[in-house]
Amino acid sequence: MRRGIEKESLRVHADGRLAETPHPAALGSALTHPNITTDFSESQLELITGIHESVERCLEELERIHQVVYRALQDQILWCASMPCNLPADDAIPLGRYGSSNVGRAKTVYRTGLAYRYGRRMQMISGIHYNWSLPGLGTEEYFPLIRNFRRHGWLLFYLFGASPARTTAARPRTYTGRSSSENVWNRPQSRAESNCRPRCSNSSALPTLN
């Protein structure tokens, strides 16, 4: 089995406030870096591993990426919970910025649409996407797996998707997964951005882990 991890975390100050500063220059371009980018917000880091057959190698790469990030954060830290930290007013949450190229501007415009449709606070929920594939399997083999996941999905979300603790700034909202055309259980932006970075073929992501 091949696997890869995408881990989202908010950049925060030591007192738990969201860091509204731009993506750290020391981490390179959020548009083109293969391992370190941003998700919805400029303050929401996303760490991406390569594809690994070994669980240990996958976790080792994620650890190395974390180390690089922390060296660049200086006086900031990564918020470890899925539910967001103390957030500013909705319109003060910075959208991801990716430069002036057509691709970069399109990514920011897309996030502007998400902000209007869902609100910026909801998009600050962060989690872990566990992408995996089974070499040699095709559509006929994957569909039974998807049906079984849907059949037992309520239990997986109950066991692994619960966030029993939240700050007063994190208003509870209904949040559900859905299956995209690439068989990825993920947030709405995943389908639109699936061609912006490589994923495991025929991948599937587990619910948010805390």
Short description:
This protein has 210 residues and is α+β, with helices and mostly antiparallel strands.
Can you tell me the residue ranges where pLDDT is under 50 for at least 5 consecutive residues? 174-210
Shape-level CATH architecture: 2-Layer Sandwich
Beta-strand segment tally: 5
Q: How many separate helices?
A: 5
Our count of domains comes out at 1
Main sheet? 5 strands, antiparallel
CATH T-level fold name:
Creatine Kinase, Chain A, domain 2
* Terminal Cα span: 24 Å
What's the CATH first level?
Answer: Alpha Beta
Mean pLDDT: 82
- Anisotropy-based shape: globular
Estimate what percentage of residues fall within beta strands. Answer: 5-15%
Q: Write down the secondary-structure element order.
A: EEEHEHHEHH
3D structure, described in words:
With 210 residues, the chain is α+β, with helices and mostly antiparallel strands. The chain has 5 helices and 5 strands. Strands 1, 2, 3, 4 and 5 form a 5-stranded antiparallel β-sheet that branches. A hairpin with a 5-residue loop joins strand 2 and strand 3.
Descriptive labels:
13% strand, 210 residues, single chain, 5 helices, 5-stranded antiparallel sheet, Creatine Kinase, Chain A, domain 2
Outline the fold blueprint.
Elements: E1 2-12, E2 36-38, E3 44-48, H1 55-73, E4 77-78, H2 102-118, H3 120-123, E5 128-133, H4 139-160, H5 189-193
Antiparallel strand pairs: 1-3, 1-4, 1-5, 2-3
